[in-house]
């Protein structure tokens, strides 16, 4: 059995990872996010299909360093050893040129996508050292490989994730921890609704006239990456919808 901690498991890619890994019989799931009621509903749905799956949910705002330290250092004794960390929690807020950007949005993105990922990773590493095949998976993005108009700060945070993935691979080499970056293009989740602050119509327009990826597509790739033998690590995996060539060049039918 491998114990996997998934941050941001209440929605989208994180939720899909929980469902897909639960469907394989060799994972125990530690699920966290701010909306713990969502996690509990997800846990109940998973248990309906896979009654033997072990799941522990807890509330976590990855931006709060002390909360992260407390939560990870006070896990129940039988959840204290972690094999896999999926650093998935993240968000984009706003799509504006820098001079019109909202500094609160900038703080939320930097605090969540960069500092939150760092805090969770720091307090998780000591729990991974006894694992037979420890693995950290960071959710990067096409936005961490290129910069697109008005993407400024979000792109900067995902470039930072790219740099931190490389840094982890170096720093954790001696500990034998695999580190992988999964870098998707457009995935239809709550991502655009969060970016556009609840404007559902604007969010739906992002995916209009094309078939985007879905959370399950990414989760299945992550399950594949995790299933490689001990001597194989997939460093970096960029995955796009067929209808997307770059961050902004897409083919729409209407
Ligand atoms: P969703 O909005 O559907 O899910 C985001 C998840 O992150 C939610 O579960 C949310 O939980 C959690 N989260 C956000 N802020 C915090 C916080 N402060 N503390 C803890 N959890 C938090 O989006 P996606 O599933 O699409 O996004 C998942 C990851 O994938 C992100 O890192 C995103 O940048 C990345 N990504 C997404 C792409 C896309 O097109 N959708 C493409 C490339 C990368 P809650 O609100 O309950 O805390
Ligand atoms: C999410 C994908 O292209 O909206 O990281 O930045 S994109």
From TrEMBL:
It holds the Pfam family adh_short. Signal peptide: none annotated. InterPro entries: NAD(P)-bd_dom_sf, Sc_DH/Rdtase_CS, SDR_fam. Keywords: Oxidoreductase. SUPFAM superfamilies: NAD(P)-binding Rossmann-fold domains (SSF51735). The keyword Ion transport does not apply. PROSITE patterns: ADH_SHORT. Belongs to the short-chain dehydrogenases/reductases (SDR) family. This is SDR family NAD(P)-dependent oxidoreductase. It comes from Sphingobacterium suaedae.
């Amino acid at each position: 059995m491998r114990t996997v901690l998934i941050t941001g498991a209440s929605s989208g890619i994180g939720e899909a990872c929980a469902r897909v890994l639960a469907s394989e019989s060799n994972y125990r799931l530690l699920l966290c996010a701010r909306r713990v009621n969502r996690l509990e509903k997800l846990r109940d749905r998973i248990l309906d299909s896979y009654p033997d799956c072990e799941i522990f949910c807890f509330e976590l705002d990855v931006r709060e360093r002390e909360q992260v330290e407390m939560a990870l250092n006070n896990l129940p004794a039988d959840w204290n050893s972690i094999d896999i960390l999926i650093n998935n929690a993240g968000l984009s807020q706003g799509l504006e040129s820098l001079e019109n950007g909202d500094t609160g949005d900038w703080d939320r993105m930097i605090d969540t996508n960069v500092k939150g990922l760092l805090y969770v990773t720091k307090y998780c590493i000591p729990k991974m050292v006894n694992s037979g095949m420890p693995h950290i998976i960071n959710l990067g993005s096409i936005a961490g490989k290129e910069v697109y108009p008005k993407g400024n700060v979000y792109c900067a945070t995902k470039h930072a994730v790219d740099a931190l993935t490389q840094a982890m691979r170096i720093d954790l080499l001696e500990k034998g921890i695999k580190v992988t970056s999964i870098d998707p293009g457009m995935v239809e989740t709550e991502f655009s609704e969060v970016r556009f602050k609840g404007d559902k119509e604007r969010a739906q327009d992002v995916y209009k006239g094309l078939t985007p990826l879905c959370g399950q597509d990414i989760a299945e790739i992550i399950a594949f990456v995790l299933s490689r033998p001990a001597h194989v690590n997939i460093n970096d995996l960029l995955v796009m919808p067929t209808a997307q060539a770059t961050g902004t060049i897409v083919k729409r039918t209407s």
